[in-house]
Amino acid sequence: MADFLAAFDARLETYLTQLDDLQERNQKQHAFQPTFWLQNQDFNVAREVFVAAAGAIGHTVTKFSLVYSKTPSKEEGASICEALDKPCEQLLTATNVALFCGAGPSLATEIINDALRLIKSVHDLGKSIEKGDVARVPQLTGRVWEYSTARVSKSNCVASKRSMLQCITMLNSTTEELKEFLAEQNEEDSQAPLDEVEQDDEFAFDSSLSEEERALFESSVKLLSMCAAIMKRGVLTIKKLTISDDQAAFLSWTAKLDVSYTAAQDAVVDFGAALYPPVGVDELSEAVSSLEVSSSAILACLKEQPDLAATEESALLQGEAAFAKQLATMEPSADLVSGFSVWAVPEAATAQELSGIIEEYAERLQTPAFLPHMTVLSGVKAADVTDKLAGLAASLRPLDVEIQTVTIKVKAELRS
């Protein structure tokens, strides 16, 4: 029994490694290119086999869950793994077959992710049984059952549209959150969402927007709205096209557009995160650059559409010019400070009293416990740095903490 469980664990490790390799090939090398758009008989069969293989794993754990008690013995747990051994092998085979039946980037992502989640859940179950932790078996078999329902789209068309719409939904959600935050800032005595987090601290930093931050914030929301318009245009373009399987140029173009939307998702998330105060000029500049690259890639791809009409090309050029104009408003003021750092040093008499706070911040910021370091990034003018530090000192004074300014970092290029 022990030998089988060890071998089962090793096989699943191998399956996961193979799936990770396939995922990397898809994400970084774009190895999977579509050979069909709407329906394909070979893929339909491969998909049915994949769904059946995943379903067999779910059926197996359900059957054993009904037979065994809530805390099965290790021998009973091992019998579950024995029954899952062959279905897991069949799932990996079905994954490879489905991928190489003309799946494009998003369809390949769905197939690989479904297989990864399911094999990983079986692997967790096997490891728990091997360790003798049978109390977790009901929970883990439930997870296996949950992931055994394959959610793979029936065509590259459906998978691509789904991925693109998810990206737009994420962007719209980020935009709405930022608009709500901005509205709260405009209300008297309102508190931003970040304040709720800071109120748990002993330091209670102010998260209100400075005048310069507000201007950047408003421009950023407009930029996100413009990005949403670009992405919606891409979805509408895909929806109105009729693409046949023999149109290789169109199929290749849809894959490129698909990949550009996937790449934009991280840029949108990072951009939204960079806007919450205190606003770091460096961080925001990097996020703007990333968003510019991803959105420009989508625009460029839309302009590369085969047989693009002159009116469509003209509209895209106008959109490109408007996007560039909005980007220009995101340039930070030349006298904004990139950031500054302060060191909180407790006086000897109160060191014991503040030791808990010091250790908490030291652990969070990965600094020595006797000298917690806090970096404050904010879009403040160089002339306002002294006042900003004075405000920080005032908020910390009730804790008898002495503030020593160690460094004020001003980017040279912002002064040039």
TrEMBL record:
This is Cyclin-D1-binding protein 1-like N-terminal domain-containing protein. GO terms for cellular component: nucleus. Residues 53-183 form the Cyclin-D1-binding protein 1-like N-terminal domain. The lineage of its organism: Eukaryota, Sar, Stramenopiles, Oomycota, Peronosporomycetes. It comes from Phytophthora kernoviae.
